[in-house]
Amino acid sequence: MSESNEFDVVVVGSGVAGLTAALSAAESGARVAVAERASRAESGGNTRYTEAFLRMKSIDEVSDDFEETLLGDFMGHPDPSLMVESLRDRASWSPPTRTLSVIDPDVVATLAENAGPTLRWIAGHGVRFEALATPFLTTSTTRLMPVGGGLALVEALTAAGEQAGVTFRYETSARALIVEDSQVTGVRTARGDLRGRVVLACGGYEGNPELMARYHGRGGRHTRPVARGGHYNKGEGLLMGLAAGAATAGDFALFHAEPVDPRSGQPEAAIFAFPYGILVNREGRRFTDEAPGPVDAWYERVARRIHAQTDGIAYAIFDAGWADVPNFSAAIRTDQPPIEADDLASLAAKLEVPADALAETVAAYNEACVGGEYRPLEVDGLATRGLTPPKSNWARPIVNAPFRAYPIIASNVFTFGGLKTDDGARVLDVDGDPIPGLYAAGELTGMYYTNYTGSTSVLRGAVFGRIAGRRAAQG
After folding, report:
1. pTM score > 0.90 for this model?
2. Rounded to 5 degrees, what are φ and ψ at 211?
């Protein structure tokens, strides 16, 4: 007997957004199918490989800076007349205001209000949340994480979904939405049609070189997905949504950048220790303030400046003083050894940067270090003087061998541009109206613009996945 392809809800993707959507829909009484490109062993997208930091101060409370930081992201210079209109009753908004590519305060409020209840719901399915150690030696906010990271989320939610009767179709790539009488009624996949209201939760487009070139130009070749799961994110969800007339949100010119060692194939092989040394480019020159503030709040912006250098690469250089930084190794996530030398000329040769330029760079930096109390685990204000660009904290001379370096590129954790959704996870069309039968959650949806609000991506995927599944089940 052939498998039925008729369901109430079809979820595309099995990361945290897709799994919470599927489980929520099933618990609401719907017949649910999940279409997942990967095999079962590699399912879960980016969620499988992340530590899944959550911007919470307890399982029930978001961080004190949660809404302020999200809404404070620079979104360009939107039309003031539309911004004034957005302050009025939502029912009176014109289509340009309904589709304005800015952060929706109602979406942020819904995320904040539902974060705690969503984590409690997930905890009820066997996941524990604790405030565990992070690789950030200096921090600006509070964090929780699931014990066992994102993999624990994938395993627990998949098991709960199976127990609730969800049908999982692995190695099944979605190709197109089925639209009948202006309503989404299913998904065409590589293995046949799946019928039902649709929740798109299949990530961004960081695994698609063509889309990376389309939106990021030549610089798209200088980055890569931060973990294996990102290579499965080919952008079909975005393309399907656009073909159905969806509006967009988020900055399509940017992605969440993380500083990683390009030599490593490890997930998130990050180098978060760079504030304790200097960064030089292929020309052997400094190009940015390495330590403007707590590393958790600034690593993305520094990674973007690395991305803008020749070949999108830079080198973090340390001397023997790294040993004075407590738990320094926790901020080095690569499995590759440092490039080491007993003198700067030898180090330059190994890095293939001009030796004279590196020597001049280090000499100028050392001369600008004025001394003072060094406090590596807090923002210490130990800054250079008379140096451009400056180093605002942890500025100590680089003088003592051995000298060590790590190459760094800006890896692509996820792309910022995506579909525009409302606080009910409904996909909005280019007139600002919900597309009947279509919902979306997770990294596919646009929410970030200039700077990623750290430790909110998994959380928004979980919250709006749960909302999308419930709403789709209700129809």
Report:
1. yes
2. -70, -35
